[in-house]
Write a structure and sequence with these properties.
The protein starts with a helix and ends with a helix. It is 89% helix and 0% strand. It is an all-alpha fold. It contains 4 helices and no strands.
């Protein structure tokens, strides 16, 4: 009786994952795509947890917890990258070089 519930829950999660992939591919903005990737990662954690209970291998729960942590950190890193821009590291180097050039020009004028 319980195996049917596990199978139905697993099928529902797989459908949600497929919808998340569609959203990631078709999303109009970057934030929609990041949200879809986060949804996919969360559903993958749920799928691993259901498989762990279904198969009786409760050690897989530790793996699903680790994957959820990696998913969270990855989404935060992607959002920070989008917030700062693609080449924020290169812009910082250019800004530093332009400050040095301005400083050198100021010393030449004095």
């Amino acid at each position: 009786m319980m195996t049917e519930y596990y199978l139905v829950a697993g099928l529902a999660i797989l459908i949600a994952m497929a919808l998340g992939v569609c959203r990631a591919l078709l999303g109009p903005t970057v934030f929609d795509r990041i949200l879809a990737v986060n949804l996919f990662g969360t559903k993958a954690v749920l799928l691993v947890a259901i498989y762990a209970f279904f198969s009786g291998r409760h050690d897989l729960l530790d793996i699903s917890l680790l994957y959820s942590l990696l998913n969270f950190v990855g989404v935060i890193a992607a959002l920070r990258l989008v917030e700062r821009g693609k080449f924020f590291a290169n812009n910082a180097v250019k800004l530093e070089n332009s400050e040095l050039i301005d400083k050198a020009k100021g010393e030449q004028d004095a």
